[in-house]
Amino acid sequence: MIVSAPAKIILSGEHAVIYGYPALAGALSLRLTLLSNKKPPETELTSVSSALQSLQAKVESTIPRGCGLGSSAALSVAIAAAWQGSTKNRDVIAHKAWKLEQEFHGKSSGIDPTTSTFGGLLWYRRETPHLAIKHSLPISELHFAVLHTGKPAESTGDMVHFVAEQRILHRNKVDELFQNIEHCSRQIVDALLSPDPSSLMAAVNENGQYLEELGVVSPSVKSLLAQLRKDGFSCKISGAGGKTHGSGAVFVYTPDTQRYKQLNTLPYTWDLTTLSPQGVQIEERE
Ligand code: MEV
């Protein structure tokens, strides 16, 4: 069996989504592939490592690891789909993958595995520990860049833990940031659904700045983002971020596609990309 699952990018609402605020995420064309020629056992799926062992699986991936693009979620989703032996019931796959994700960081909102399972563009909100709602949106012809600022020194779990601590120490400030981020998420989704996405720029920058205030962006990446904004791009980190050195993937958008060439002057790699409709797929079975 060959199962592949996509990377994801969060357009708005990371971290806030853990606390019940909505977020917007989309699948990318980068994919992780799991190859196995063993039937899954009839037992419960309990952990990533034991599942990989039982399936005697080989994993190949073009998703950079630990950089905010959902590589661990794609692995959980591919395992959950292989365990099911089918992609018919995607809700079950997303739920099982979310359970596996808890292994990587105990407080996963489920947005990463859900996006990787369904593909496309999703509006997502966790209502209760047992209920999450997601709404698939039409994918606009949005061209954007993913800029790689380097693997953060902190894991997603570390960053999620850091934000939880900040919320204990500064409850009002953090909740206000989350409310502001929710406002950005609504503006971003409306801009994407409208024929004129020009309001996207301001809302992306605003969301990015709230994440900086939350403390999940390193000083060097903050300067990079400020420079990009000066140069006429809108940008924000995507995913959990990082506090000390790199902050993982950065979402960069301008409606002027000619302008992306300017990113070549930066000391970072980047890709010009679009969202991908493809979620988890079983590609072949013998
Ligand atoms: C990570 O891609 C997004 C976070 O909000 C964690 C989560 O929602 O599970 C930081």
User: From the helix content, strand content and strand pairing, which structural class follows?
Assistant: alpha+beta
Low-confidence stretches: none
* Topology order in helix (H) and strand (E) letters: EEHEHHHEEEHHHHEEEE
Q: Tally the helices: what do you get?
A: 8
Shape: globular
Radius of gyration: 18 Å
Mean pLDDT: 94
Describe this entry's structure for a reader.
The protein has 286 residues and is an alpha+beta fold. The chain has eight helices and ten strands. Strands 1, 2, 3, 4, 5 and 10 form a six-stranded antiparallel sheet that branches. A four-stranded antiparallel sheet has the order 7-8-6-9. Helix 2 packs across helix 3, helix 5 crosses helix 6 and helix 6 packs antiparallel against helix 7. The longest helix is centred in the middle third of the chain and has 23 residues. The protein is globular and about 55 Å long. The mean pLDDT is 94.
Secondary-structure topology with pairs:
Blueprint: E1 2-12, E2 23-35, H1 48-54, E3 58-61, H2 71-84, H3 90-101, H4 111-118, E4 121-128, E5 131-137, E6 144-148, H5 156-169, H6 171-193, H7 200-214, H8 219-230, E7 234-237, E8 249-253, E9 269-273, E10 281-284
Antiparallel strand pairs: 1-2, 1-10, 2-3, 2-4, 4-5, 6-8, 6-9, 7-8
Summary keywords:
286 residues, binds (R)-mevalonate, 6-stranded antiparallel beta sheet, 4-stranded antiparallel beta sheet, alpha+beta
In short:
This protein has 286 residues and is an alpha+beta fold. It has helices at 48-54, 71-84, 90-101, 111-118, 156-169, 171-193, 200-214, 219-230; strands at residues 2-12, 23-35, 58-61, 121-128, 131-137, 144-148, 234-237, 249-253, 269-273, 281-284.
